[in-house]
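ARCHIVE CARD
SHELF: 3
SLOT: left
DATA:
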Amino acid sequence: MNFYTQYSDTLTEQLNTFDWNLVEQLVEAVMTVWQNEQRLFICGNGGSAGNAVHLANDFIYGVNPCGRAIDAEALSANSAVLTCLGNDLGYEHIFSHQVSVKAKSGDLLIVLSGSGNSANIVRALAQAKSQGVKTCAILGYSGGEAKALADLPIHFPVNDMQISEDLQLIVGHMLMRRLNTLITS
């Protein structure tokens, strides 16, 4: 089997064996945020940080290009905030501090993580829960600590960081398209 076939087979296996009802639960959670004019926050590290920025853009625009969409923010997007908090409070606080300042009860936090064990992801989930913010985690590998902390863990048990990150975007794009059909119909 060549490399490309193996990669695509691993991704396809994850897609074909996943319980998509979990994503429909996330659709319902985001619809509630939209209906109540609340906020959606997304965060992750490395490639997952890039995915958070990408998906925030999709929710702000792609969900409803001609009307009110989702008030979404990628907590990984502002380099000045990230470097300030990392330097002054410690890297493990770069997302939890932003949640403590920006989020309100009823908002939604989606964390994107391959391992689910990054200290800043775990702290963000704990902070959100302490404020009454609903939480979702899109995870790979074993799901780590984040799997147990999130209100809605969407876990793909694959030991591959790139496929984990691919799946974050696939779930995000499915979510955006489903929300678009619900909001614009």
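SLOT: right
DATA:
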Amino acid sequence: MLNDPPNTRTDVSRHLPLLNALGAAGHVSQRTLAQRLDIAVSLVNRLIRELLDGGYLEVADASVRPFAYRLTSRGEEYRRDLSYRRYRSVVGDFRAVQRSIRSALQRIRTNGTERLALYGAGEIAEVVLPLARETGFHVVGVVDDDPEKQGRKWDGLTVRCPTRLDELAPDGVLITTFRHAQEIRDRLAEAEPHSVPVLEL
């Protein structure tokens, strides 16, 4: 693996997108790069200077403006290294999330909950559902407030409106969203009759 360029700690988050953009179209202005990457032109200029100084980029033709940059063989290797590190980081984060969710589910399971309904048919629920089944829950259904999701098939389940939650007869309702968790909890607490535990990860 290559060493990072000196004094650069933003290599994966800033160098990699720039290297990818230049690899796709090297003959492009710094202003256009800034717009594509949603960063300041001055930052694009600084990052390109770092990559040039590090031997990762070279100017293909200094007589043409804007300059046409191309990745050197060292730059190609650096880009592969950064891509690998980003992938490794994402996988590591995902596994950490899985471990945390699995631990929470095991704790809920030991409290006697068997029939579980999920509240929220988003990305978190996509991770929770297989882990819940693996932990021994019978996932009876999923509900979501978004009308566009309601009625859709979702991993063998049909997404329902939350007003139909009682029809699922769950032992517990697991909130599978972090953004609106308190709002959902408050709404469920006001529902009558309501005796099913509301759970969070």
